[in-house]
Amino acid sequence: MSSRLQRRKWWSHLLTVLSGLCVAIVLVPLVSVIYTAARIGGPALSLSFLTSNPPEACTPSPGITCAVGGIGPAIQGTVIVVGVAAAIAVPIGLAAAIFAAEYPTRWLGRAISFTADVLTGLPSIIAGVFIYLLLVIYDPAIVFSVISGALALSVIMIPIVTRTTELSLRTVPQELREAALALGIPKWRTTLQIVVATALPGVLTGTLLAVMRAAGEAAPLLFTLFGSRLGFEGFNRPAQALPLLIYNFAESGAENWRELAWGASLILILMILVTSVLSRLVIARMVRRMRGS
After folding, report:
1. What is the spatial distance between Cα 268 and Cα 5, in angstroms, rounded to a whole number?
2. 8 Å CB contact between 218 and 77
3. For the whole model, what pTM was predicted?
4. How far, in Å, CA of 201 to CA of 169, rounded?
5. CB distance 130 to 119 below 8 Å
6. What is the pLDDT confidence band of residue 293, given thresholds at 50, 70 and 90?
7. I need a labelling partner for 90 at 20 to 30 A (CA). Which of 21, 233, 254, 259 fits?
8. Inter-residue contact 54 to 257 (CB < 8 Å)
9. With contact defined as beta carbons under 8 Å apart, do 239 and 73 qualify?
10. How far is CA 45 from the centre of its chain?
C-alpha cells in the first residue's frame, strides 16, 4: 500500500508540474503580444489619439513632419457595429438555444445544435462574402455600411451564443424543471424564469465570448464595413473599426499609419482584456449570490 501511495503521489506531482508547464507555454505568446503592442504602441497613447481622426499617409523625412492623428472613428465604429451585431445575434441565438435545450429530441432541436456546431468553425471571411453577395442582390446601396458590417458579425456571433447557451441550459437539472411544472407553473415561465435564470452566468459568458470574438474580426469587415477616416455618418454609410484600421494601416508603407496600427492594436487588446476580466468578476459574484440564496 505504501509503494502504491508513493507512486500515486509521484504521478500527482509530475502531472502538476506538466500542467504548470503547459500554462506557461500558453502564456508565452499572450504576454509576448501584449508586451510588443505596449512597447511599440504605448508611446502613441494620449487623449487626442483616442478622439481625433486618422491623418494623411506620410513618412517622415528631412524637412517633412507627419501629422500624428488618432483612432477616434475606429473606436466609435467598433462600439456601434459590435453593438448592432449583438442586438441582432443575441436574441436569435438565445431563442435557438432555448429551443434546442428544451426540445433536444425534436428534429428542429437536433438541427439547431448541428448547424451551430458547423457554423462555429466557419471561417469569418465567409460571413463577409455571404453578406456582401446577399446585399449586392437585394440592396446594393448598403453593401458597404454599418448595417452590412453588423450583419456579417452577427453571422459569426449567432452560433457561438447558441452553442454556449445551449450547453449552459443543459446543465440545469431536469428535476428543477419537473418540480416547477408539478407546482403548476407554465412551461414558458419555467423555461424563462427558472431554467434560464439558473444558467444565466453561462449564458452571459457565451454572449461576452461572442462579442469579444466579433470585436476582433477584420476579415468580414473588408467586404462590408469598408472603412472610413471620418466618424459615424449613419447606419447606411461606411464606417471604421479597430480591426479593419489595424489591417489596412499595418500593411501600408506610411510610417505614421503603422504607428497608429500598433496603438490601435494595444487599445483593442486592452478593451478585450478589461471586458473579459470585469465580466468574469461580475459573473463570479452572481454565482456566489445564487449559491448563497
Report:
1. 50
2. no
3. 0.89
4. 10
5. no
6. low
7. 233
8. yes
9. yes
10. 24
Per residue in 112-162, pLDDT (tens digit) is 999 999 998 889 999 999 999 999 888 888 999 999 999 999 999 999 999
Q: What is the identity of the amino acid at 61?
A: S
Number of residues written out for the chain: 293
Give the span between the Cα atoms of 259 and 253, in whole angstroms: 11
Contact yes or no for 266/70 (Cβ under 8 A): no
Q: What whole-number distance in Å separates Cα of residue 93 and Cα of residue 189?
A: 19
CATH: 1.10.1420.10, 3.30.70.100, 3.40.50.11270, 1.10.3720.10. Which one for 90-292? 1.10.3720.10
Residue carrying C-alpha cell 448563497: 292
CA–CA dist 163, 146 (Å, integer): 26
Domain boundaries, the chain: 90-292
